[in-house]
Task: structure prediction
Amino acid sequence: MSAQEWESLCDGCGKCCLSKLIDEDTDELYFTNIACVLLNSKSCQCSDYQHRFAKVPDCVKITLDDIEVFHWLPPSCAYKRLIEGKSLPAWHPLLHAGKHSEMHKRSASVRGKVVCETQLNGPSQNYIVRWPIDECE
Ligand code: SF4
Ligand code: SF4
Result:
């Protein structure tokens, strides 16, 4: 797969740009609706993709070589589904001529559902949400 093909697999949902919490006792993963400071909450895109690693040091590049990354990706993520042998969700942009509208219409992206990490009002635990891990076909 070429780099361009790999990039095109990304649906642009923005869920991987949310903060996650791990329960130290159970290792259970929890998503929050806290968005990275660079995430555009309307387009669901990184606002400085080219320089993201310089600006957000813990931003992670997703590659097939780094299998550890996959456990914290949401079930709808095309990369995670690829390694699990699953098909793309019905709203995936690749199935809609590259358009993201079906994804947003089905509420499969973070649009309108997140708060920027710079605008929190209380501890991260208060922002735990289920929707990023709910299956969304
Ligand atoms: S969760 Fe997966 S498909 Fe969605 S934006 Fe992140 S990398 Fe792309
Ligand atoms: S730097 Fe960009 S790609 Fe990385 S987590 Fe933040 S918004 Fe997402």
